[in-house]
Amino acid sequence: MDRIALEAARLLFSEEGAGWIVAALLGFACLHLYREVGRSQEARIGDTGATATALERASQANSAVALAIESRTRVLEDLSRLASEISRGVDRSDERAREKFDEILRRLSDTRHEGR
Questions:
Q1: The model's pTM
Q2: Whole domain around residue 101: which residue ranges?
């Protein structure tokens, strides 16, 4: 780039007058590059905004999923608690049923012994 600038400066002050053409062409090239850089930066800013929006939406979706999982976890904990209560109730009922069955068997055996 430095060599181009030096060559342009040499041609600008040369006796043939070609330097002014080179200077004009370099000016147009610089203007074109300036506009392209501006467009490129605008595109990057737009892409950054789109990325930020996508990340925000993904964050909201992740938050909703986390809340749903937490809710499901609470439901599973409640179901687990209920299942253990039912299991304890069945054990108690089985124990009561055994006690009543033993009582019936005792009465039957008492009745047989009394009948002899």
A1: 0.44
A2: 2-115
